[in-house]
């Protein structure tokens, strides 16, 4: 007789250092099984060849996952100049090999040209969907799909090292930026081409790589120790201003009603807490001065 595994209502965020060779979803499913969690989601896809910070949201934390998906990211990328590939990374077929006659100053200057608001064409080898099918599936069939140009912002590019035909850069950017495409575009600007040979995400919103745990280390923990590694759901939005509501206001807010709060309330989204410092969810100040509920945690018991 086969027994069905009991799913647990687990709330929190695990900051995983995604291992090489795992898709984001494979890493998520592995951790979800370890926690026996009923509900889970990840926050921004990392390619199998990329490693690094992947926040995994469980239970109530999934309500705030898109704030992490939409947040700025930082990457440590390693580029190989002089070679272009079909995928823009080391996994793809080599398309062209060119001599590299690039100085450190020329590379620095090329990187500076891509800081700011830029346009990117998403690569064919990506998980973007066309008519319900991932672009990489078309690419594997030899079919080229026209992609819309997207606008992204590169906040900063720091050159960490440059040694002839290999360079390491630190990139801070908005969501939806393809670092593979950035590497290819820098290579094209230099006239020698380039592709990625390494990519590691080191920051997402307020989370940094030093706070992560590897999958191997997480698997070695006991059930209690695994739960202790989860950050509270509100850490996903702790960059937002916070407001404490009195008991009556907290009660009516949790019923879905807009509530008054005296004092100088910041405009925009707010983290809301009750007098016990229990996180209630997100609200937003309306034009009439009331705070309207936007995304609430499950009903808090008194």
Description of the molecule:
The structure is a single chain. The protein is an alpha+beta fold and 302 residues long. Helix content is 21%, strand content 34%. Strands 1, 2, 3, 4, 7, 10, 11, 12, 13 and 14 form a ten-stranded mixed beta sheet that branches. A four-stranded mixed beta sheet has the order 15-16-17-18, with no helix packed on it. The mean pLDDT is 91.
Structure, briefly:
The protein is α+β, with helices and mostly antiparallel strands and 302 residues long.
**Strand element count:** 18
Distance between the termini: 42 Å
Rg over C-alpha atoms, rounded to the nearest angstrom: 23 Å
The low-confidence runs, each spanning 5 or more residues with pLDDT under 50, are none
Average pLDDT number? 91
Share in helix: 10-25%
Beta-strand share of residues: 25-35%
Q: Supply the helix-strand structural class.
A: alpha+beta
Shape: globular
Main sheet attributes: strand count, strand direction, barrel closure: 10 strands, mixed
What's the total helix number?
A: 8
What labels would you give this structure?
alpha+beta; 302 residues; 18 strands; single chain; 8 helices; four-stranded mixed β-sheet; ten-stranded mixed β-sheet
Topology (elements, then pairings):
Blueprint: E1 12-18, H1 24-35, E2 40-42, E3 50-58, H2 65-69, E4 73-81, E5 83-85, E6 94-97, H3 104-112, E7 116-120, E8 129-130, E9 133-134, H4 135-140, E10 150-163, E11 166-173, H5 179-190, E12 194-204, E13 207-208, E14 213-214, H6 215-219, H7 223-228, E15 242-244, H8 247-253, E16 269-273, E17 279-285, E18 291-296
Parallel strand pairs: 1-14, 3-12, 15-16
Antiparallel strand pairs: 1-3, 2-3, 4-11, 4-12, 5-6, 7-10, 8-9, 10-11, 12-13, 16-17, 17-18
């Amino acid at each position: 007789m086969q027994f069905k595994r009991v799913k647990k209502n687990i709330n929190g965020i695990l900051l995983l250092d995604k291992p090489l060779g795992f898709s984001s979803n494979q890493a998520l499913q592995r951790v979800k099984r370890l926690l026996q969690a009923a509900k889970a989601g990840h926050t921004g896809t990392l390619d199998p060849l990329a490693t690094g910070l992947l926040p995994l949201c469980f239970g109530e934390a999934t309500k705030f996952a898109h704030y992490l998906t939409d947040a700025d990211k930082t990457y440590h990328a390693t580029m190989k100049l002089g070679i272009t590939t079909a995928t823009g990374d080391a996994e793809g077929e080599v398309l062209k090999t060119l001599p590299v006659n690039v100085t450190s100053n020329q590379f620095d200057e090329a990187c500076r040209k891509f800081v700011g608001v830029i346009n990117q064409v998403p690569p064919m080898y990506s998980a973007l969907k066309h008519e319900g099918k991932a672009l990489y599936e078309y690419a594997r069939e030899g079919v080229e799909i026209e992609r819309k140009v997207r606008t992204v912002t590169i906040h900063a590019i720091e050159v960490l090292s440059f040694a002839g035909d290999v360079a390491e850069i630190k990139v801070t950017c908005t969501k939806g930026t393809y670092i593979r495409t950035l590497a290819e575009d820098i290579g094209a600007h230099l006239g020698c081409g380039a592709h990625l040979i390494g990519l590691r995400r080191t920051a997402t919103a307020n989370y940094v790589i030093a706070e992560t745990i590897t999958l191997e280390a997480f698997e070695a923990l006991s059930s209690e120790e695994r739960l202790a590694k989860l950050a509270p759901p509100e850490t996903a939005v702790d960059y937002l201003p916070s407001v404490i509501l009195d008991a009556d206001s907290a009660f009516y807010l949790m019923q879905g009603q807009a509530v008054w709060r005296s004092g100088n309330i910041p405009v925009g989204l707010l983290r809301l807490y009750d007098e016990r410092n229990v996180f209630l969810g997100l609200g937003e100040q309306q034009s009439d001065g009331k705070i309207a509920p936007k995304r609430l945690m499950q009903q808090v018991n008194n």
